[in-house]
Amino acid sequence: MTQAVILAGGKGTRLAERLNGRPKPLVDVNGTPLLELQVRTLAHHGIDDIVVLVNHAADQIQAFFEQRQFPSRVRLFDDGEPRGTAGALLACLDDLDDRFIVVYGDTLFDIDIGHMLAAHEASGADATLLLHPNDHPADSDLVEIDATGRVQAFHGYPHPDGAELRNLVNAAFYIVEKKALLAWRDFPVPCDFAKDLFPAMVRADAYIAGYVSFEYIKDLGTPKRLDKVEKHLRSGVVQRASRQHLQKAVFLDRDGTLNVLRDYVRRPEDFELLPHAAQAVRAFNNAEYRVVVVTNQPVIARGEANCNDLQRIHNRLESRLGDAGAYVDAIYFCPHHPDAGFAGEVPALKIACDCRKPQPGMMREAMTAMNIQAADSWMIGDSTADMLAARRAGLRSVLVETGEAGRDGKFTAAPDFQFAHIGAAAHFIVRTYPLLAAAVNEWMLKIQPGDMVLVGGLARSGKSTIASVLKSELMARKLDAHVLSLDRWLRPAGERSAGVLGRYALEEAQEDLKDWLDGGAINADLPSYDRMLRDRGLPERTVLAQDMVLILEGVPALLADWRSERRIWRLHVEAAEAPRRVRVETDLVARRVADAQGAAQVYKQRQQDETPPVAAARATADGVLDFDSIFSIDDTP
């Protein structure tokens, strides 16, 4: 197996108050010396030969290893004088294997080393550097790579004014081929890998590769950093960040979700973050979600921008997020466009592909690359293409009312959840959803395959939210579940009669669902309804298996006799009237049903013809859920 070299010669001046006379690599981390944690982590990943380069307080490190047993062979080399990170290693090059890993003696890490080694071997690089984004790129040394992952340049801090660089920081964890260093043995010392040797090698056309990873690696060279690392160890953050563990992610559409929708963004100058975007991404970072941007970019196929232009645009995105202490873990883009006829178009890219949303190719590629579990992940976007892509990828979907706001009308795909903007979506995902999931747990445990769940209540009381949470949690239990909104069966405006039941064609709904209600299955086109366009859309192919849990939600859900032999659970959702009224009137204005004055009139009318029968149906429910204290209308993440 590959050898590892730990650079353990540092004094740890900034950490002196925690060292009590020990060298920095022996600093106590939650009761264990850092060097022991490093050696045992390397051994866990199959590294059985470890070379430790020492200088300051070498005798203490020697004594440390003499007093302990490790599964790997450990050898110490004293370079005699400070030579810098690269200089120390070059001095003992003859004693190293043909390939080795370089580890800094002040870092805590949990990295899938086998995966990184496979990437290094596949690239054929002279050296591979672990790179990752951080929440302060403006004052970090950044590494520039090309589309193939080859390092092009190192950008030391401070950066020039106005510089917009990709947020990729050298994590100080390398895989190196010995033969690539032979010509550099006489490099002037003291010298550092990141600041001196690697930049010189890149200038000399050596192949230095970047391996971009979200995995945990942090230096703990100051008391503040040490405290943070210890907290992460105790809370499980370090372990959960390993790509050997399933990850949870938030997939983000770009235009109209993260940034202002302006036709197409062709230049960095056209890119402007939306309000709440950076704060939302930071909330996802803090909640341990991997943040992945997935964006259709037909401007490339149309010849209106090239990949270099797009990289500059994404550099601006990462710089703007970094200014607010936020970062994305990956950006995937589809350069294709199926329609021809544009001046300057690129014929090779004018194809139908499996990565252009609503196809789920970008999400599936990211899930494979980053070991992401779909059931714990989300997609946030502003279009029906985003919602359909989420469904096809098995993700929870959130529609934001910025950009297209779901009014594109291209596909029939209702979102699981809908919010005013990405900030409100982040607030819900990070704070509110876990509380709602806990609140429906009692009912989730009662529901069995083939059951029907009716979720009723007044408009904007949280019915659709509860139904979607219930579906998501049932599917996490490996139960197949499907939500249908009774709004699918709203009558056209000209065919409605008085009262809430006069607005819904419930007889049609019962007929459409008859085969399933009778204990069978359905594979048929059912009506669809576009809330933003306030009209029925194209029929939607719907498959309801015999043992599927059907969740039927809507204002009149508890008002009808569903005439079924299936077990039916009846849930009534209620809300405090003042915030519900705000939600009703805000929604009517947002959907352009009425202006503020007209919305108030609609609310008053609904109070007369909707509230009495729905309130009466409450008495027939198996349970009543009141979530206003949890489902906040607060928009801030």
Automatic annotation (TrEMBL):
Keywords: Carbohydrate metabolism, Cytoplasm, Hydrolase, Metal-binding. SUPFAM superfamilies: HAD-like (SSF56784), Nucleotide-diphospho-sugar transferases (SSF53448), P-loop containing nucleoside triphosphate hydrolases (SSF52540). It is found in: Cytoplasm. Gene3D superfamilies: HAD superfamily/HAD-like (3.40.50.1000), P-loop containing nucleotide triphosphate hydrolases (3.40.50.300), Spore Coat Polysaccharide Biosynthesis Protein SpsA, Chain A (3.90.550.10). One of its GO terms (biological process) is carbohydrate metabolic process. InterPro entries: HAD-like_sf (IPR036412), HAD-SF_hydro_IIIA (IPR006549), HAD_sf (IPR023214), Heptose_bisP_phosphatase (IPR004446), Histidinol-phos (IPR006543), NTP_transferase_dom (IPR005835), Nucleotide-diphossugar_trans (IPR029044), P-loop_NTPase (IPR027417). CDD domains: HAD_HisB-N, NTP_transferase. Its main location: cytoplasm. Residues 4-233 form the Nucleotidyl transferase domain. The keyword Transmembrane does not apply. GO terms for molecular function: metal ion binding; phosphatase activity. The keyword Transcription regulation does not apply. GO terms for cellular component: cytoplasm. Belongs to the GmhB family. This is D,D-heptose 1,7-bisphosphate phosphatase. It comes from Variovorax beijingensis. The lineage of its organism: Bacteria, Pseudomonadati, Pseudomonadota, Betaproteobacteria, Burkholderiales.
